[in-house]
């Protein structure tokens, strides 16, 4: 009788990523919650794993932190062995394998990996908790994802993966337009999702490097 | 005299209380090409002479980055050095993962020494045939250690290992109290110096461990030569064996 120990908790939050022709935008809100309470308004869900790879994860932040540390350590080993940084597609595979490794006690982390591929084009990879992943033009995960994804579908019109020949998954939007879109979707999600709000951290990856931007959101 | 009877097994003592296999392993280090290390209060510099197996092959890597704050230069069996470098890198990564802080150099060298010691006390193993100059930075400052196959380690202000290291060591001992590490590094290598045959690496406060590019090393060598020529001219020849002109073989080498 009574409740068993629950190893997981959901700290809420939403992550979004959009791939462009030569850039990638990865964004996440900075609110960390538990139950109906706010733990902090100022927590980053975004981690830069490599030169051109940025991971945003919502879910159980303790598992997210462990996952980020795990991947960073593996990346360091890769650099020692290969004398170069991991490419984003390589990191995507590594993340998938790392998640599946814990198939029977998963990381409660809903991930979106964004960056530039070896050709310099934007790429976004979206995951489930056990490592199933797909390269897409845009994605969102977390408590506000159901509110955001139909808006992105409408605005970005990603090609179907069933098309032959395969069409590029990147959006024709410019970097500035993509960032504005991200700000809009977060503002919308904040309205109706209680776990999303406070601030959105927007990371932009392009050929010249990584830029970070913060935008205030509703704090209620 | 009795060396041949007691030198088969690393676990066999000689009557004189020596482990010949361990001493033979240290001999392998002396046969390797030179590696030199030098430290100041804020920086540590490593330099190695790169020997190529033949004119057609590439040079062997003798300097390895272990972590942002630690690097090693090796002399002896390069394969053993590579394997130990992998071990050191793993130790640093594991420590950083758990403690979110860099592994202090002093602790790293102890672990390495203990690992080497194991191989001196197992009949089915052999000692590592490589000596490592470990250069690193921690909260206590800059450190240079020498780890040898016996499992011993010592901290040094400056040290050299490998072939013709005695010349370098003598040179460094004479200049023990002077500063400007990099200048002495170039002289101490004692060979005809070109950037293609030597590797120089540095770690310091605010400067993560990195190997200096060939171009930058060549510039330093050139600057060194012009400075040495100028000093030689000024003092008119009696500086000959002191200046350690990198173009000529170090005088002590004739031994």
Q: Topology, pairings included?
A:
The complex is a heterodimer of chains A (220) and B (255).
Chain A (H helix, E strand, L loop, with lengths): L13 E6 L3 E7 L2 E3 L2 E4 L5 E5 L2 E7 L1 H22 L5 H14 L7 E8 L5 E6 L5 E4 L1 E5 L2 H12 L18 H18 L6 E8 L2 E8 L4
Helix pairs in contact in A: 1-2, 3-4
Chain B lengths: L19 H12 L3 E5 L3 E7 L13 E5 L2 E7 L1 H22 L5 H14 L11 E9 L2 E7 L5 E3 L2 E4 L3 H10 L6 H8 L9 E7 L2 E5 L2 H22 L4 H4 L12
Antiparallel strand pairs in B: 1-2, 1-8, 2-9, 3-4, 4-5, 5-6, 6-7, 9-10
Q: What does it look like?
A:
The complex is a heterodimer of chains A (220) and B (255). Chain A is built from four helices and twelve strands, in the order ββββββααββββααββ. Chain A is of the alpha+beta class and 220 residues long. Chain A has one domain (14-216): Glutamine Phosphoribosylpyrophosphate, subunit 1, domain 1. Chain B is an alpha+beta fold and 255 residues long. Chain B contains seven helices and ten strands. In chain B, the strands form two sheets. Chain B has a five-stranded antiparallel sheet with strand order 8-1-2-9-10. The longest helix of chain B has 22 residues, at 78-99. Chain B is globular and about 55 Å long. The model of chain B is unreliable at 189-193 and 235-255 (pLDDT under 50). Chain A binds chain B through residues 69, 73, 76-77, 80, and chain B through 65, 86, 89-90, 93-94, 96-97.
What would the keywords be for this entry?
heterodimer, A: 220 residues, five-stranded antiparallel beta sheet, 32% strand, globular, B: alpha+beta, Glutamine Phosphoribosylpyrophosphate, subunit 1, domain 1, 7 helices, disordered C terminus
